[in-house]
Design goal:
Elements: H1 4-8, E1 15-19, E2 22-25, H2 33-46, E3 63-68, E4 71-75, E5 78-82, H3 97-107, E6 119-125, E7 131-134, E8 146-152, E9 155-159, E10 169-173, E11 178-181, E12 190-192, E13 207-213
Antiparallel strand pairs: 1-2, 2-11, 3-6, 4-5, 6-13, 7-12, 8-11, 8-13, 9-10, 9-12
The chain binds N-(carboxycarbonyl)-S-(naphthalen-2-ylmethyl)-L-cysteine and fe (iii) ion.
Length: 216
């Protein structure tokens, strides 16, 4: 007779709870690897990676692009989502089916079976690139989780709490790992320190991170 714990517990032993509302699904993207990398090539042929400028005037070390109905951008006027790529003047490439399938497959066991992202921010880290501690708060409805997918070189991921000064925990995120950030963890501060040099056998000398969002 299954008890309540069996029903609520994650079915997969590769699942870790990082914080309340934050689940790490180790290797969950591995079955999608080939399709994801092929789709990524299609996206970046239409909307190439670029280094955006922050409102403070700094050029980001992480290169970015997007797919979906909306994409996250930053320039001297601020951070926001836009339906068009400012570099091409055209809509962002459509969200590939394999991207959406993976996001839904990850969000479901985390308790968000109805999550349908309309935006995917794609980050490219080359050795030395970093993302300083920040919150993701440009999305309209924080009831939607964020699903993140790591590909390529491993990175240390830091996440703290609701206040910038809260103590941070560190996790190694590796090729194929997927994380779901919802509930109280949705607005936690997080960042990625400088990527260490290396070469990944299928992705090369970089780390790619996909973050699926309900933006609009
Ligand atoms: C926790 N990206 O794109 S993914 C970002 O590895 C971003 O490229 C990092 O932070 C990266 O905004 C981290 C993990 C992640 C993404 C969004 C979160 C963790 C999160 C939102 C809220 C809490
Ligand atoms: Fe973030």
């Amino acid at each position: 007779m299954p008890d309540l714990f069996d029903i609520l517990a994650p079915a997969d032993p590769a699942t870790e709870i990082m914080a309340e509302g934050a689940m790490l699904l180790r290797g969950a993207a591995l079955p999608f690897e080939k399709d994801l990398l092929a789709a990524l090539g299609q996206i970046t042929s239409q909307s190439p990676f670029r280094h955006m400028v922050t409102p403070g005037g700094f050029t980001m070390s992480v290169a970015m692009t997007n797919c979906g109905t909306a994409g996250w951008i930053t320039d001297r006027t601020g951070y926001r989502y836009d339906r068009n790529d400012p570099e091409t003047g055209r809509p962002w490439p459509a969200m590939p089916e394999c991207f959406l399938d993976l996001a839904v497959e990850a969000a479901t066991p985390a308790g968000y079976p109805d999550f349908r992202p309309d935006a995917c921010l794609i980050n490219r880290y080359e050795p030395g690139a970093r993302l300083s501690l920040h919150q993701d708060r440009n999305e309209r409805d924080f009831a939607n989780p964020i699903v993140s997918v790591s590909l390529g070189l491993p990175a240390t991921f830091q996440f703290g709490g609701l206040k910038r000064n809260d103590p941070v925990k560190k996790y190694a995120l590796r090729h194929g790992d997927v994380a779901v950030w919802g509930g109280p963890s949705r607005l936690f501060y997080h960042g990625v320190p400088e990527l260490k040099d290396g070469v990944h056998e299928t992705v090369g000398r970089m780390r790619i991170n996909l973050t699926f969002r309900g933006a609009l």
